[in-house]
Amino acid sequence: MRDKLRTFSLPTWAATRWLAHAGQDVPLEIQRALVASLFGTLPIFAGGVINSTLVAAIAAARMQTAPFIGWLACEILLCVVRLAALLISFRRSEQRRTTPTDLYLVLGVLWSASVGYGTFISILSGDWAVAALACLSTGAMVGGICFRNFGAPRLAAAMTLCSMGPICAAAPFAGDPVFLAAFLQIPFYIVSMRIAALKLNGLLVATMRAEREHEHQARHDPLTGLPNRAGLRRAMVARRERSVALLYLDLDGFKAINDSHGHGAGDRLLNMAAERLRRLLRTDDVAARIGGDEFVVLVHGLDRTQAPAFAERLIHSLSAVYQLEPNVTVRIGVSVGVALAPDHGDELSELLDAADAALYRAKTSGKNCCVVAPSLGAAESA
After folding, report:
1. Which of 341, 345, 340 has the alpha carbon at shortest distance from 358?
2. Longest dimension (CA), the chain
3. Among 88, 19, 27, 76, which Cα is nearest to 52's?
4. Which has the closest alpha carbon to 135: 172, 168, 108?
5. pLDDT given at position 377
6. What is the dihedral of CA 197, 200, 201, 203, to 10 degrees?
7. 367: alpha, beta or left, given left = phi > 0 and alpha = psi -120 to 50?
8. Hey, where are the domains in the chain?
9. Would residue 331 be called left, alpha or beta, if left means φ above 0 and alpha means ψ between -120 and 50 degrees?
10. What is the mean pLDDT of each run of 10 residues along the chain (382 residues)?
């Protein structure tokens, strides 16, 4: 896999979307990872283009005819353009900008077609040294094409066909009946590579799905689906703004409901509360469950004057009636402690400590209310 700091754009053209298709119902996150794998690295790129350009140069020097000189010119041009597209993609991916993925994929297919063209004219040349070199080089490169691009089996198949298909086209005109064996060998080889790419792709996608599921379970609460403490810590580290409000919520009266109506009813209430939190938050905000009836909400862009009003919205929503069963309705209260970054620190532990202390004050003040932790300067003066 590529460096996780890099993000490559998904293809947008109809043809390139088809080429990069990774299978049915593949999550977007995995699609992006598979597209990233198609870009490879500079050493991998260099190995391929140096090989094909060197073979074209040797053939052009030996034959010194327009078709071979044209092949060499095409290889050099494609090498320069593909390298530029690759470097631009690397730079833009690190900057989280749109990458020329469509162009890069098309250039890859054109390069394989150039290799196929060179093999075609080498066989027709009648120079068996040149033909053998071109065919050997093509066979070696196709293996790399297939196993480097199995993240997109259709792309691998298209590049394999463009590279080796011309061998079959040239076979009837090679001047030697023995060469007609290519009609049996080449299609079998292309199909075999296609099957191998599909199987490797399926294995990779299954592995990535399992890793994704494992990571999700490690960072999310199994009951509500909200992030757990580990997920909250990750969201805190990944936040884009330094200024953030952390609201520590405790459901007042939850234990009594759990004891009176059973754990199943308590679980339903927690799920309903989590859903209400989701509806109140923006895309960049995060709600997490970090304990039995304890939730934490991270909200960007709230200052000391705005946080209480937002906390009151949470209290109002979470305190509304819950329909646990057709004939069972309950109410709970919500106490909220608020801490602010950077006023109370930039680390999650610092904000949790400050918000927990404010939550304690809210509960001892009669519950179902909000208390904002005092600023560090005020706390020290007190």
Report:
1. 340
2. 99
3. 76
4. 168
5. 56
6. 160
7. left
8. 14-218, 229-381
9. beta
10. 66 95 84 89 85 95 96 96 95 91 96 96 93 90 79 91 92 83 84 83 86 85 93 85 89 91 92 94 91 93 89 94 90 94 90 95 90 71 40
Q: How many residues does the chain have?
A: 382
Token digits of residue 303: 């200052």
What type of residue is 270? L
- The pair of structure tokens assigned to 132 is 């053998």
CA distance 184 to 188: 6
What distance in Å separates the CA atoms of residue 142 and residue 335, rounded to the nearest whole number? 64
Check: pTM over 0.85? Answer yes or no: no
User: Reduced to 3 states, what is the DSSP secondary structure of residue 180?
Assistant: helix
Is 64 in a helix, a strand, or coil?
Answer: coil
What is the helix (H) or strand (E) element at residue 337, kind and residue range? strand 333-341
Count of beta carbons in the 10 Å neighbourhood of residue 262: 12
Q: At the fourth CATH level, which superfamily is domain 229-381?
A: Reverse transcriptase/Diguanylate cyclase domain (3.30.70.270)
